Every structure is written in C-alpha cells, then in structure tokens.
Amino acid sequence: MKKQRWIQSRSRFLVILHDILIIPIAWFGAYWLRFNLDGIPAEALRIAILSFPVVCMIQAAAYWPVGLYRGIWQFASLPDLMRIFKAVSIGVLGTLTVLFLVTRLQGFPRSVLPIYSMLLVLFLGGSRFLVRWLKEYRKRKSSGERVLIVGAGIAGEGLVRELLRDRARNYMPVAFVDDRKNKLGQDIHGLRVMGGYSDIPKIVEDCEVALIVIAIPSARANEMRRIMEYCEATACIVRTLPSTQDLVAGRVTVDLLRAVSLEDLLGRDPVKLNWESIGNTIHHQVVLVTGGGGSIGSELCRQIARLTPKKLIVIERSEFNLFSLEQEIKEQFPSLVLMPYLVDVNDRIAVHEILSQHQPHIIFHAAAYKHVPMLESQPREAIGNNLLGTRTMAELAVLAKVQKFVLVSTDKAVNPTNVMGASKRASEMVCHYYNGKGITRFITVRFGNVLGSAGSVVPIFKQQIERGGPVTVTHPEVMRYFMTIPEACQLILQALTQGKGGEIFVLDMGEPIRIQYLAEQMIRLAGKQVGEEIEIEYTGLRAGEKLFEELFHPEEALEPTSHEKIFQAKARIFEEHRFLEVLAGFEQAIAIYDARRLYDLLNLMVPELQSNQVKKVIKSVFI
C-alpha cells in the first residue's frame, strides 16, 4: 500500500513538474514566433525575462483549481482538454491583469499573450494525448484475441475505448463493420470501418478475427438475424451488448458482453404502454388470477404486484407451482397482500367461496390446458378445464359483480384443427355470452406462442440439444408466431384498460417464424454445428397441428385500436338460444365419460373445426 502511494505521488509530481516546465517553453516560444523565428530584440527579451516569474507563478497557480490533475494521461479525453483551456484562460487573464497594473503594458508586444496561450494549450494537451496514443498503440500491437466490432456508433466507439483501456482482458480490436455508407472508411480510435455486414466473413479471414462483438443495442430482431447470418458463416465466437438502456446510462463495458440470445433474434420492438392508465386500473383493486402458477399466469402476477393492488388472489391447481410463486412474490413484494388458493377452476363451491370472501374487482383467467397433441385424444380433460372451467369462472364472476373479466386465449382458437383450439374458441364464446348478463365486462385477449413457456417448443429444443440431439421438428415448412412472456402480459394489461366489454383483442405478433429456423438458431447459439454435431429430424405433423396459425377469422373484421400493437376483432354471432343447452350436454357427456359425444358437441359449437380431422381422431381413438 505504501509503495503504491509512493508511486502515485511520484507520478503526480512528475506531471506537475512537466506542466511547469512547459510554461517557459511556451512563453519564450511565443516571443520567438512573434519575431518571425529570428533573434528576439534585446529590449523585448528583457521584458520577457522580467515578466516571466509573474507568468510562471500565476499560470502554475491556475492549474490546480480547475482539476487538471484529476485526469490520467493514458485516458486523456475531451474533459481533460476543457480543463486545460480553463487553466490557460485563467492564467492568461491573471497575467494580463498583473502586467497591466504594474507596467501598463509599456513595450509589451500585444500578440505575445495569444500566441503563448495557443502554445501552452498545444503543449499541455499534445503531451497528454501523445501518451494516450502510445499506450493504445502498444496495446494494439500486443498479442490478444482479435475482435471485430459490428456497429460504428456510440456503443461501438465506447466499447473499443473500453477494450483498449482494459489491461486485465486480452482483447485487441482490429476493425469495424457498419452498413451505414457515411461510416465506411472512417477511423475510430485508429480502427477503420472496413465494410458492411455482408463483408464480415471476408474481414474475419483477412484480419484473423477470433471474436465478433455486435455493438448495436437498438438493433431490431430482423437486423440481428441478418447480422447473425453473416457471423454464422465464420467460425468466430459472437457476443453482443445487452440493451439501449445500458447505453443511455453509459454502461458500455466489457463486463456487459453476453452471448446472443434467442430473444435477440426473435424479439420485437419494445412495447410502449400507457403505464399510468394501467396503474390507475390496477392500483388499490382486488385482483384475481387463475392459473397463476403457469407461464402467463405467473408473469401476470409479477406485473400486477408491481402496480400495488389492494390484494392479489391466485388460484392454481399445481401445488408446487403455487408454492414457488408464493415464495417469489412474498420475497419481492413483502408488503403485498397475497392470497394463494390450491383450487381447480371447476370447483364451483371453492371458487364461489373465494369470490364471496374477497369480492375481486378484476379477474384474469389464464388457467387452461394447452398441449395440442396430448389433448387431441383426451377431449374430456380439454373441454372440462378449458371450456367448462371458463364457464364456471364467468358465471360466478357475474354473480359476484366482478367489474372486469379478462380471458387469455390463443391463436389456435381461429379455424381450429384440434380439440385444444376448439375448446379455447368455445371459451371465447362463453365470455361473449355472459357479457351483458350483469355488470361484469368480459374481454378476450388472443395471441400466439410465447418464448420459453412451459411445454413449448423452446425448452423442448433446449433439452434435446443438451442431450446431443436430434432436434425434432414436425415439418420443414411449419411456422408460428412468437412473443416474449413479459410482452404478452404487458399487452394483456393494456387491453384491460381499453376493454369496454365484449371485445376480442388480438395482439400484433409480428412476422411468423419458421420452426426449422428456430431449431437451427438454438443449435448455433449453443455453440454446435447444425447437421454435424446436432441433427434436425423431421417427424411429420402431429394430430391436430397445422402448418400456419391464424390470429383472426375472416369474418371477424380486424380493426386497429388506440394501441399500435393491439387490434380488435369483431365477435362472430352464434345461436345463443342453444348455447346453454350445448353446455349442459358437455357436462352430461363428461359425467358419463362419453368422448364421442364430446367430439360431436364440440363440432356443433365450433362449426369451423375441421370435420375430417375430428373423424380421423375419433377413428384413431375408438376403432
């Protein structure tokens, strides 16, 4: 510790000594330049020598107050240059004032002070930036992992500066690439912008690059996909910076580099929400979430907990999921009144007791079975939970005079080819039927797949990759819509504030993603080679699956809303006079385990359910 302090004191002394020695060089150099690099006349030299002590003392005294010695030479930057300007300005003004009071500037060359100030700035600043350049040049010439920076903007510049400063890590940035034509050929910290994204493979080969860093925190998913296509043509490791928020906060550091994630490639533009409106709707309200232990339900609980409800009630049938959620919410929001209930949504007595006791203002109904192939041969469970569970919640919500009821639906409810989708479409019809039967306003929110939800394709692919493959894809042309779980839940909350009752809100899912592409990217992001280390195996479409999902029916007349990512589908008309009769038929068929009758009733209630597919399933199950 003492040795370190001694070294620091010695370094500061040498810097101060350097700055003081610069003063006579600049002072007499100004006279020399004033007289055209010839000999300085005797009288002028006499005045220069007599005035020098005043100049030296005043200028030396001006260095310290402006913080000139807070900066480190090897990191010299614009703030250091500004401090030099301040110190020189103070010194020159002080010198001018004293000399005027003492000599009235008689015989003093007027142009000397401007020349002196310029030389002093040049020498003080030049020496500092020369030291910085030599340090960076020496580091650049040293051995290290050669790095190509994608993006020659603010983040790229900051990252290169950080890489050059960081002695602990052995990185050597060698070049930039950027698709903006005005950047091509520019030098940033001595590194050339050598080309666009398409030039990445060639530059990697020419410059012997080992690491590619994508320094574009604001890049959209389609831009990230395009960049990754070129990066994948190389054998380099690829890293990226996390977010625009970190860039704004000035946190562009080597420690923030991370692997490119699936969300980077499949994510969309950040959702802009009216949090004030959402907060006013949720704040100090009693909110109930069914299926609160699931992927969507648990995230809804997290989002709602941040909005300070009066009470959060969670209904969940999985003991472990409910326990895990309870522990998490209590840890993060200790002041929140949380009421977890281990209850099935079809348990009418338990649900009625909960609603009577707590009188919720808002219900989010996220409880549902969603595994398409599994439910295809188990219509009793699908219809019992998805359809009749929704009917139980909706009917009791009306009796309890709940203000708003939000049904979380799916794109598989549109032109369904499977039992799961048809049961969710029937659930939408239940909410439409009960809307207007009391004060409760029913709102349906429909969206596609969410990244990383339990049982979805992403965690399945991840497990298969960890086992060494193969990764199973049903069909090379199958495509699905994707969004992140937080984004889906935020848009559900936004739809809550917009809904007046009876609407079907459809979330903008962006462009559909080919599942084959998803599988390939997950393999590459895991550091494996597609087809060499991990194979992709096509298994054929499973029962009830289709190549493309749809977000709305042609008869639903999709219309925009006040939010750019939320659309409203016009609810289709159905025969309400037979509705309760069909629901009663479902209850009877479930009571006697009549699966054939369940298929028939589902086809009757949801006519767009493709009959050929139903017949095929019936044949495979019963014959």
Q: Briefly, what is this?
A:
This protein is of the alpha/beta class and 623 residues long. The protein is 50% helix and 14% strand.
Task: Give an account of the 3D structure.
The chain is α/β, with parallel strands linked by helices. 50% of the residues lie in helices and 14% in strands. The strands form six sheets. A nine-stranded mixed β-sheet has the order 10-9-8-11-12-13-18-22-21, sandwiched between helices. Helix 5 links the parallel strand 1 (145-150) and strand 2. Helix 3 packs antiparallel against helix 4 (112-141), helix 11 packs across helix 18 (485-498) and helix 15 runs parallel beside helix 16. Mean pLDDT is 79; it is low at 244-252 and 611-623.
Helix content: 40-55%
Shape: elongated
Question: Pairing-aware structural class of the strands and helices?
Answer: alpha/beta
Strand content is 5-15%
Q: Summarize model confidence as the mean pLDDT.
A: 79
Number of strands: 22
Largest sheet: 9 strands, mixed
Q: Which residues form runs of ≥5 with pLDDT under 50? A: 244-252, 611-623
Radius of gyration: 35 Å
